[in-house]
């Protein structure tokens, strides 16, 4: 904790069927477009696939940032999410929306309530 630089983890999701390699490329490009991202040896941005959601593939962007940005975590996360969204639009990567399957049973019960 004595290091003045910090790594932030920015979670994001994409729709099932997205090209994972393209997702990684877009997220790394987004990180480079945020001015306070460090890109020195051992502190490069990285992307991890972290899970399978109900309607999405989950990822995390890991970035090292300049010390002055650590004091503004909400703005920092917003800047990265904004850049990720811009990159996804550029590469036509879909952000997921909740999907639910509804199964209906036809018919009705013919039993009468008992007294």
Can you put this structure into words, describing what you see?
This protein has 115 residues and is an alpha+beta fold. 29% of the residues lie in helices and 23% in strands. It is built from two helices and three strands. Strands 1-3-2 form a three-stranded antiparallel beta sheet, with helices on one face. Strand 2 and strand 3 form a beta hairpin. The longest helix has 19 residues, at 73-91.
Present the secondary structure layout.
Elements (H helix, E strand, L loop, with lengths): L5 E10 L4 H14 L12 E7 L3 E10 L7 H19 L24
List keywords for this structure.
115 residues; alpha+beta; 3-stranded antiparallel β-sheet; 3 strands; 23% strand
For the terminal residues, how far apart are their CA atoms? 72 Å
Largest sheet: 3 strands, antiparallel
Radius of gyration: 21 Å
Number of strands: 3
Coarse structural class: alpha+beta
Poorly predicted segments: none
**Widest β-sheet, arrangement of strands:** 1-3-2
- Helical amount among residues, as a percent range? 25-40%
Which series of helices and strands comes N to C?
EHEEH
How many helices?
A: 2
The rough form would be described as elongated
Residue fraction in strands: 15-25%
Query: Overall pLDDT, averaged?
Result: 90
Provide a short characterization of the protein structure.
This protein has 115 residues and is of the alpha+beta class. The protein has helices at 20-33, 73-91; strands at 6-15, 46-52, 56-65.
